[in-house]
Amino acid sequence: MMGASKDKKATAIFKRILKDIKPTKVEIEATTANVNRLTAALKRIVPKNIEIRVAGSVARGTNLKGDADIDFFLLFEKGTSREKLVEHGLSYGKALAKAEKSRFEIKYAEHPYVRVYVEDMGIKADIVPAWKIKSADEMGTMVDRTPLHTEFINGRMSDRQRDDVRLLKFLLKKHNIYGAEVKVGGFPGYLCELLVYHYGSLAKLLEAAASYKLPLILDPSDRANVEDPKITKKFNSDFVVLDPVDVNRNVAAGLSVESLGRFVILAREFVKRPSAGLFYGEKFSHDDVPKYLASLMKDTGLDIYLLVTKVPDESEDTTWPQLRKLSEILEGQIARYGYEVYISMPYISGKNGVIGIVAPKSWKTSRLLKGPDIFIRNASDSFIGKHKGAFGFAIRGRSVLALEKGRYPTIGHMLEDLAKGRIPLKSKHIDFKGARLYANEVPKELMHSTYYELKKRLSLP
Questions:
Q1: pLDDT tens digits for range 188-219
Q2: How far apart are CA 164 and CA 14, in angstroms?
Q3: Last residue of a domain, which of 244, 259, 279?
């Protein structure tokens, strides 16, 4: 527990930060006017039997200052075919873009939707077709339940709790663990809302999170913690937040263990020493980046390698999982040659797919390969036969080991072969054959991205 004095200090901190992050009265009025204008425009386009409903953080009153993007759900009758829902939904979204003289993009969730960039308002408006449902039992696609989320939050959450959600989002954003995107593995907005509602306030959430032990199952529908191994097994997760509108969904499914762990450390730090600095993060200057990278290499004695290749013009939801998988494969290959990787950091910067490797300096002229159990005759004979050119063999416990000449004296030599295509590293959309390799240097165009990725992995309170 924080205690009375820390409680008072936390309240003062929250009040001060809210002045920076909560939309002003003027901004709220402008957003309301924008919602009304676009709703009226949609009503002129969309047939009357299709309900237009606003969803997302704007509708729930949990958006941050300067973030007034609007989600419009076009709710079709349940009997509408999927083909017609998508076809008509896209046509209505495009018609809105035309009426507003704005550009648009087709985005993809479970099915396509339209994102309209309304430049004179400075906002994005997502036009999402969905089936109109009263409960998750009627759900045809995952997006159908989003309006139900808005109903749940708006029917229960107080204005003070909405402000607490804003504070939570701001904290998570500053520490790079906010967002449902695959590459982030962070806390989506709806999860933030449920956590604050479940515990009643941000202060109580932070106190609880500071003592989190896994497995943990939260049921916000009645603000209860549940102990049921069947649930963690069902969702294959040790951290489950049951969706109040769909008990078959874990709202925290996309949250990585690393992001949850970072949040727990932040919570512990705030409970011990309430501080506004924890919310605002470190002071940052672009001028500090080269100095930071140079000192990291010099002071730690580590090597930094960057493999850089082109990625296709696809959504990051498509390319990012492939890049992450390739990074895991590469890390495994490096380990097989006897080297240790401290940090592996795949990231996308513009049109470049990058795999960064941070590892201790090492020069190996030989390697010791562990083989099978010596008492498994066929396997051990096969291993010895395969490594006939070895300097020799040893027995450790029941295992046979081969001491042989190392193929690559450093990680850099291995990565050179990979870039030349002698070691394949590719997926459906990404191929590292012909990649650029940077060893202990970071090109200017990747300087800030590399800094950001390193700080994201190394910075904790």
A1: 999 999 999 999 999 999 999 999 999 999 99
A2: 8
A3: 279
* CA–CA separation, 428 and 426 (whole Å): 7
Say if residue 174 is in the same domain as residue 272. Answer: yes
Domain boundary residue among 138, 154, 170? 154
Global pTM reads 0.86
Which residues have C-beta within 8 Å of that of residue 378, sequence separation ≥ 6? none
Whether residue 125 is contained in a domain is answered as: yes
For residue 140, the 8-state DSSP code is S
Q: What is the CATH number of the domain that holds 171?
A: 1.10.1410.30
CB 369, CB 350: distance < 8 Å: no
Overall domain count for the chain: 4
Task: Please report, as a single letter, which amino acid is at residue 76.
Answer: F
pLDDT single digits (tens) 104-117: 999 887 889 999 99
